[in-house]
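Renewal narrative, Specific Aim 1. Our central claim is that a sequence can be written position by position from structural information alone. The example that follows is taken directly from our test logs and has not been curated for this report. It begins with the structure tokens describing the chain, in the order in which they were read.
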């Protein structure tokens, strides 16, 4: 019968937790005593409580100092191990066969220590000397023949550090391992190589099921092989949909302009997933004609991705088409179209204003939200201060915004402005909007602000206000804020 051995760190943590729990229990008991009114019983144990608190703090300080010392000691040991391994690598060529074999076996036996030491050796010459001594070959055998999972994962890490071209074969074979952790360790190791053979092995792994393709694609994104484009493009013609999908994805991330014809061809693919991936890839080399076609694709998935790419690449001429997508039947298409329009800024204003009169409530609402988001609604509030034609145009736009359920800017300005004439005009806008939300906003303005509007109107003898905001609106303002019939004249 064997017993599990507790790690020192676990023992220390358990001890600290026990001390904290005991201290908390003591203080809880004291609170209970105080609550019951028996304060006298608390005095004898106060020294013990103070001693427990001081002792706990001292213990934690000692543990922190001890952990710091142990950390420094571990770092020193690793540096020493790296120095010894570098010295051994230099001496490998001068050792006889028997001694060299014993040294290699020792390194393979303690692969975790070997990996940590190799990671600290910056001299690539030492790595090459170890490879020449046969270390990489022996570690490759461990990768394929060892029955220990973590030993094999460590072996893959050692091979990635040694960087021997001869290790690409064993690592490639391990990509199909039944254990996904071992297979992914081999993939991570291959991603450290610059050879096209390693890159191609990872591309082949996209079609396998041992490793999730998204994880392999993530490694390929960081793997900048000089021949990457030439290796990826042929896979755009693969029979498997999944391979074509990832080919479009990787070519988009690579961003080589020479791949644009391949991406354009993939936008005509029979699979909607491939077309959507190609739509995303167009962000690296946008083509307005292709994007316009994808925005009208029969698949909502493709339209959604095309809308996102249109916004990311700021295709201003496509703003009207994006505004039309606010009426799309798919929520994701509408949402991505709204986000794209917000990214286009002022260039999207005409298309958004036209959607304020859409029969689709969602389209009206989203158009209003975007106009508020890009600051256009606030600009109209500022223009409303003027009594000229620009102010009248701003008033009509604000009314349309309010009826599209985008009242926030109007209502906030009406509550917070210190200009009573502007407040009166904004109240007039809210009155003209005439919705339940507008009525609630009018009530939120408050009686005090409404009194201020009435006093200003009385001071201007009503006629001045009628001239500023129109006789019909003045009457509406007076009714909204409780004006009297005498003031209307």
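The sequence written for that structure reads:
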């Amino acid at each position: 019968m064997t017993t599990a051995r507790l790690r020192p760190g676990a023992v220390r943590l358990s001890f600290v937790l026990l001390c904290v729990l005991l201290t908390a229990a003591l203080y809880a008991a004291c609170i209970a005593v105080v609550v019951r009114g028996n304060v006298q019983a608390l005095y004898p144990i106060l020294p013990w409580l103070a001693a427990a608190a001081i002792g706990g703090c001292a213990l934690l300080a000692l543990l922190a100092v001890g952990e710091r010392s142990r950390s420094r000691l571990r770092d020193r040991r690793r540096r020493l191990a790296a120095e010894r391994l570098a010295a051994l690598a230099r001496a490998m060529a001068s050792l006889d066969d028997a001694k060299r074999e014993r040294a290699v076996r020792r390194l393979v036996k303690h692969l975790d220590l070997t990996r940590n030491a190799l990671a600290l050796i910056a001299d690539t010459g030492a790595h090459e000397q170890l490879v020449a001594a046969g270390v990489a070959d022996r570690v490759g055998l461990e990768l394929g023949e060892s029955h220990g999972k973590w030993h094999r994962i460590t072996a893959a890490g050692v091979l990635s550090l040694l960087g021997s071209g001869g290790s690409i074969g064993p690592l490639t074979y391990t990509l199909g391992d039944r254990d996904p952790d071992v297979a992914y360790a081999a993939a991570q190791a291959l991603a450290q190589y610059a050879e096209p053979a390693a890159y191609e092995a990872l591309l082949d792994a996209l079609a396998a099921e041992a490793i999730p393709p998204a994880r392999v694609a993530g490694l390929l994104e960081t793997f900048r092989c000089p021949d990457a484009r030439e290796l990826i493009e042929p896979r755009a013609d693969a029979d498997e949909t999944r391979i074509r999908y990832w080919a479009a994805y990787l070519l988009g991330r690579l961003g080589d302009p020479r791949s644009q014809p391949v991406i354009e061809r993939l936008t005509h693919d029979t699979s909607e997933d491939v077309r959507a991936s190609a739509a995303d890839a167009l962000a690296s080399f946008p083509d307005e004609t292709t994007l316009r076609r994808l925005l009208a694709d029969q698949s909502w998935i493709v339209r959604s991705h095309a809308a996102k790419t249109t916004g990311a690449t700021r295709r201003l001429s496509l703003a009207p088409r994006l505004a039309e997508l606010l009426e799309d039947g798919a929520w994701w298409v509408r949402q991505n179209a709204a986000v794209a329009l917000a990214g286009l800024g002022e260039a999207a204003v005409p298309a958004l204003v036209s959607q304020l009169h859409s029969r689709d409530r969602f389209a009206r609402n989203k158009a209003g939200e975007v106009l508020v988001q890009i600051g256009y609604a606030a600009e109209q509030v500022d223009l409303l201060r003027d009594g000229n034609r620009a102010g009248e145009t701003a008033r009509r736009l604000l009314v349309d915004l309010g009826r599209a359920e985008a009242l926030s800017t109007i209502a906030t300005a009406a509550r917070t402005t210190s200009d009573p004439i502007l407040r009166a005009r904004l109240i007039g806008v809210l009155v003209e909007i005439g919705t339940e939300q507008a009525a609630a906003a009018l009530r939120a303005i408050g009686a005090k602000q409404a009194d201020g509007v009435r006093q200003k109107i009385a001071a201007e003898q009503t006629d001045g206000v009628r001239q500023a905001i129109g006789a019909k609106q003045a009457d509406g303002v007076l009714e909204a804020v409780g004006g009297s019939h005498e003031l209307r004249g």
